[in-house]
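Box 3.1. Reading complex inputs
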Amino acid sequence: MKKERLYLKIANIIEEQIANETLKFGDKLPSIRTVQKIYNVSMNTAKQAFLKLESKSLIEPRLREGYFVSNTSPRRFPLPSVGKLLSSPDEKPPDDLIDKVVSSMTSEGITRFSLGTPSASMLPTAKLNKGIFKKIRELNNSGTSYHPVQGSAYLRRMVSKWSMVYGGGLTENDLITTSGTMNALFHCLLAVSKPGDTMAVETPVFFGTIQIAKSLGLHVIEIPSHPLTGVDLAALKKVLHKITVCCFTTNFSNPLGSLMPDNHKKELVNMLAEYDIPLIEDDLYGNLFFGTERPKPCKIFDKAGIVMWCSSVSKTLAPGYRVGWVAPGRFKDKIMRHKLLQTISAPILYEEVIADFMEHGRYEHHLRNFRNRLYANCLHFQRAIEEYFPDNTKISQPQGGFVLWLELDERIDTAKLYDTAIRKNISFAPGRMFTLQERYHNCMRLSFALEWNDKLENDLKRLGRIVKNSL
Amino acid sequence: MKKERLYLKIANIIEEQIANETLKFGDKLPSIRTVQKIYNVSMNTAKQAFLKLESKSLIEPRLREGYFVSNTSPRRFPLPSVGKLLSSPDEKPPDDLIDKVVSSMTSEGITRFSLGTPSASMLPTAKLNKGIFKKIRELNNSGTSYHPVQGSAYLRRMVSKWSMVYGGGLTENDLITTSGTMNALFHCLLAVSKPGDTMAVETPVFFGTIQIAKSLGLHVIEIPSHPLTGVDLAALKKVLHKITVCCFTTNFSNPLGSLMPDNHKKELVNMLAEYDIPLIEDDLYGNLFFGTERPKPCKIFDKAGIVMWCSSVSKTLAPGYRVGWVAPGRFKDKIMRHKLLQTISAPILYEEVIADFMEHGRYEHHLRNFRNRLYANCLHFQRAIEEYFPDNTKISQPQGGFVLWLELDERIDTAKLYDTAIRKNISFAPGRMFTLQERYHNCMRLSFALEWNDKLENDLKRLGRIVKNSL
C-alpha cells in the first residue's frame, strides 16, 4: 500500500466508526501514538489520518487533551433570538420568581437543572480537604488572626501566574481577593457608581447582576447580545452617552453561553476608554472553555485601567469557599478601602488552600477533566433536548460554561411551567428571571453540570413532556 | 474561741495578707471550702469571714469564679473629660492617621498597644483547630457547597441559647450570621440609611464606625459620653430630631470602656422607639465583663424591633475567622437580601466550629479564664501608668473589654508622639483617630490584651518616658 492510501484507509475506518456510532460525538479518540501502534504505521501517517478527519470536521483537537469526535449531526434546532435593546422605566424586577427558584436550589431529592453551580460530585472535595489540613498546620496562628486587607499574597501570586497563560500580565499587587465573584462585583459597583447612575448589561443576563444593581439604586440598560458572539457593540454604542458603567460576561455569558471574539473585546475596551466608562468584566466561567484554549479577558486590552476583571473558583472548585478576586485597575485604592471597612479582613484559610491547589498542578488537572465532562454533558443535553422537546424549540450553542438557554413556543410561560415541573421533582430557571423587562416568558436556563446518567436523561425526557403537554 | 471571733480572726489574717501584698490586687482568694479546711472551721464561718472582707471593699466576688482582691489603693489619676456635643460640618476624617496606625498593627517586633484584638497567645487556637478537623469530616460536601444565606443554623441556635443567660430571649430564626461585627454594622447601615442621613455615635468612638458612615455618605453627630456610664441621654435627646440612626456600644465602649446602666438602656430604647429611630447595638465586648455578670444588651428592652443587636467572636476567640451575627429586629428581610446579593452565601466552616465550641462548654471555660487575665492586666496597666506617666495624666476605668483611654497634658499631640514611639518599637492608637472633629489630640488608646510580663511593663515605662520627654 502506498503511504497516501494508508492514511486514507485509516481515516476511512475511523469515519466509518463515527458513522455507525461506534465512536459517538463527544468521545475521545485513541491517541495518535495508539493509532500508530494499532495499524503499525509511522507517526506521520497516523497524524495525516487525523488531519484528514479534522479537515472534514469529523473530529476536533483540544489542547493537551487529544482529539474528540465533533458534533457532526446537523443542528435540528436553531439558535435563540437576540433580545431587543430595552431600558423601559417600567421595570418589573422578577424578585419573587427568583426567590422561589433559588429556594428550590437547596432542596434535596429534586433534579436541579436550575443550579448555578456544578453538582458537588463533579468537584474535587477530598483533595481540597487535604489542603485544609495542610494549611491549618502551616498558617500563622492557624488563621485566627487578622490578615492583610488585600488578601492572601500566595493566592494573588498564583492567580497572577495563571493569568500569564492568556496574556494577562497581572502581578500579585494588581489583585484584591473577594468573597466570591458577586462580592467582587458589589465592590466594583460601589466604587464606580452612585444611586441614579446607569449600568449596561447583556440580555438575557444573570439575575444576581440586575438585583445587585437595583439594590444600589442603579438603572439598568439591557444590551442585545448574540448567542454566539455576545454583546452587540453597535447597539451598545447608541446608548453609551447614558451609561456610567458596563458589566459584561464576555467569556461564556450566563445564560447564553456566548463568547465575545477577541476583536470585539478590543473594540469594546477602546470604545469604553474613549468615553471613560469603567467595565466590570465578570470572567468566572473563562476556565471552562470547550475550544482549544482559554479565551482572553478584556482586561488584557486595557491600557487605561478601566477594566475591573473579576473571577473566582465558585464555578470550578468550591462554591461554598467564597474565594474570588478582582484586578480593579485604577479603582484599586477605593475597593481596598471598601473591603477594609466592610469586613476588616477576610478569612485566609480557603484562599491559601486554593493557592496551594493551583501551585501544585491540581487545579489544571481538575479543569482538564472537568471541561471534558462538561463538554460531553453539553452534547448529551443538546441531543436529548432535540429528541424530547417540541420541534419549534430553539437552543443555544455554548462554547464553555455549563448552562443552556432554550427558547420555547411563545405561548408557553415558563414561570407557570416551573410550578408544574417542581411538583414532578424537576427544577429549572425560568427565562423571566434574566431580565427586568417583560420578556423571555417562553425561555428557560438548564444547567448541564450534573452527572449524566439514565435517570438524568429520563428527567430531561419528562421535562420535554411537561413542555409538550403545556401546549 | 467563740464563733464571732473565729470569723473575725480569719478576716483579719486575710486583711493582713492584702495589706502586706502577700495577696495583691487582682489575685484570686482561696475558695471558701479551702479556707474552711485550712482553719478547720464550718463553711458558715468561712463565708462570714469573706462577707466581712467584702463589706470593707477589700475583696469582691465574681460569678462562679470566687473572690478576688479589690483595687483598694486610691486612684491617683482622675477619669478623662467628657467630650462635647459636636457635629461641625467642618469634619476632618482622620483617614491618613488611621491608615498609618492600622498598617503598624501587622508589623512584628513592635509592642502593639495599638491592637484592637487580643494577642494571639491569649486565644485558644489549638482547641479551635481540633474543631476544624472535626467539622471538615462532618459537613455536607465538606463545606464546598453554598449554604443558606441566613448562615449556620447550628451557630444561630447556640447564640440564641447563649442569649438566654442575659435574658435575650432570641430564637435561631431571629439571627443572621455576618462576616464579623463590622460587616453586621455595614449591613445594618445599608438597610436603614441613605446618603445624607445622620448617624449618632458616642464620643470618642471606634474609628471604623465613623469611616464606614462616611463611606456611605452619612453625617455623624458625636454624642458626649461619660467614661463610666456611656452616652449622655440628655445630650442625645437634644439632637434626636436630626438623627436617622444611632450606633452605640453600650457594653464596654471602645475606646472609653464605659458601661451603660440598665435603666439608661431602657430609657434609650424607649426614647428611640418613640421617635422611630433604629439603634445599631455593637455588643462585641459584652462577654468580657469584669463584674459579676454579663451586662444586658439594649436588645432585651426592645419591643418595637428597632434594635439591631450585633456581635461576634472577633474579640474573644478568633478575629481572623470573621464570624459575627446580628439580631436585626424588623429589618431582617432587608438585611438577608443585602447579604444574599453581596456574597450569595458565607463560608460555613468557621461558623460551625464556633457553634461546636459554644455547645460543649469550651467557650464559657475560655471566657472565664480570659476575663480573669484581662482584669488582672487592666490592674497591672493602671498601676504601671500611675507609676510611669506624668502626674497630670487622666485614665479611664473600664468595666470590661481590653482598652484604656488616656488623656495627657493638653500640650501633647499624640499623633506626633506616635512617630517617636514607633521608632522605639512601641505603637499605640492616637486620640485623633476616634473623632471626626478637631479634638482628643492629647489622648491615646492602649490595649491591655497583651501578655503581661517584665518586658511589657518596661515598654509601658518607656512609653511613659516618651510622654514625659515630649513636654
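In summary: Chain B touches chain A through 50 residues (CB under 8 Å).
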